[in-house]
Amino acid sequence: MAKKYYPTIGLEIHAELKTNTKMFCSCKNDPDEEKPNVNICPVCMAHPGALPVINKKAIENVIKVGLAVNGKITDFTEFDRKNYFYPDIPKGYQISQYKYPIVLGGHLADMDITRVHLEEDTANNKHDRGDFSLIDFNRAGIPLMELVTEPHTFKDSEETAKKASKFAKELQLILWYLDVSEANMEKGEMRVEANISVSTDPKILGVKVEVKNLNSFRSVERAIKYELDRMTELLENGKGEEIVQETRGWDEGKQKTFSQRKKESSQDYRYFPDPDLPKMKLHEAFNLEKMKKDLPELPAEKRARYKKDFGIKDEDIESYVNDPVLGNYFESVALNLLPNRENIILASNFISNDLIGSTKVISEFIDPDLLSETVIMISNGELSSRAAKDIILVAKGFEKGKKIREYVKEKNLLQSNDAGALKEITQKIIDANPKIVADYKRGKENALMSFVGQIMKETKGSANPVVVKKLLLELLK
Ligand code: ZN
Ligand code: MN
Questions:
Q1: Looking at 165-179, 278-292, 420-434, which range is the least confident one?
Q2: In what order do the strands lie in the sheet with 93-96?
Q3: Distance from the alpha carbon of residue 10 to the mean position of ligand 2, in angstroms
Q4: Which of 169, 346, 361, 379 is 20 to 30 Å from the Cα of 184, by its Cα?
């Protein structure tokens, strides 16, 4: 019988915070600056004697994240020096937080959060210019939030990978909703690292591997799945090869992880409180109750509200939560249609099935009133949804205040339920197509659909397909 394997995962996610200036100096925090070494000063270049000053806005941003994930905002907090040598860290240490982070605990998606702390980003090493390296200090000292989750054991490699990317995605949404970070993974504004291990005993953790270089949700999912499967395979029939504690990168091209560096033991950073920075009492410095009250609606709340107030499909809810501009547009349409839920669902189907490809077009140009009016006409049977789609796509050209009803009349698009007029057209089309009639009589079901299609075309989509079908069945008897 196959052995059972227990995968365990913990995440470390860094996110650059959106502030005007850097963490400890007044240099501009501009992730889009392309010219190297322009947003720099003696503080972020580590000149001797330069003194750091705390950016209050960065602390406030981390507190907001802590409140949003229901973490505990600590009262006492301080900055520590994390000592290590690397060219991108000119002081020889990174200012970070060790014993007293800003946030303790919390929960998001399906994972518990250990802590959220604040630190400074490093400079950028450029190794791609030849046989030398360059350093750009624009990024050095940008406020960087670090969130660490508790270790979690899920069912298998696939579920673990999915939970990890779901967590990262939900965190990105929260950072967006709170407007505290751009959190663009491709640009490195949000960086996900996964600590994973596999064990045959749920009570003992296996050897830990850290996976880095994950710059999209897809990579997060694929790299974690790949690495857990690799580790399980080694446990199962390693032929003497063992899992070693190491850091592995993700090769996007090969879709494989690769060894970056082996860790003998965990590095000793000799953390100690930074003597250049004051200790902080957050409960005095911030009005936490007010901050909690002033939080914007968060993704989970939005999902619950859309479900309760509008009863639309989960899939639609997800597209509105991920694209709040589209969500707001849907809401303006839905508010016009309340309390008629059927119409709201119709409107939502319309937006997410027929119009989603042109979201920019709808949210920027088409008056939500026009769309709700259109939906009401569809539900009254005055307009077919096919004709409605055509109208909506030209509606952005409507002059302000023009009613959809006028346009529909003008273009002769009112859905025809008039059986008399339709009967004439239907008979005409039947007479013109003896071959299809023969097919139908021989039991070919799609012959009927071919007739419906032709009649819809003849009437420019204004015929009511239900009426047409009934007529056809009658006339073809
Ligand atoms: Zn600076
Ligand atoms: Mn860190």
A1: 420-434
A2: 93-96, 80-83, 272-273
A3: 14
A4: 361
Which residues have beta carbons under 5 A from ligand 2 (an ion)?
Answer: 146
Percent of the chain with pLDDT strictly greater than 70: 93
| Torsion sign (Cα): 334, 337, 338, 343 | negative
Closest CA to 221 of 175, 176, 252: 252
* pTM reported for the whole predicted model: 0.84
Report which listed range, 275-279, 333-337, 401-405, is most confident: 275-279
Question: Which ligand is closest to the CA of 51, given by its number?
Answer: 1
407 CA → ligand 2 middle, Å: 59
Ligand nearest to the CA of 41: 1
Ligand (nearest to CA of 53): 1
14-23, 243-252, 407-416: range with lowest mean pLDDT: 407-416
Going by C-alpha positions, the residue among 358, 296, 273, 345 that lies closest to residue 316 is 345
Largest CA distance in the chain: 97
β-pair type (209-214, 246-251): parallel
Secondary structure class of 364 (helix, strand, coil): helix
Q: Token pair for residue 50?
A: 């330069």
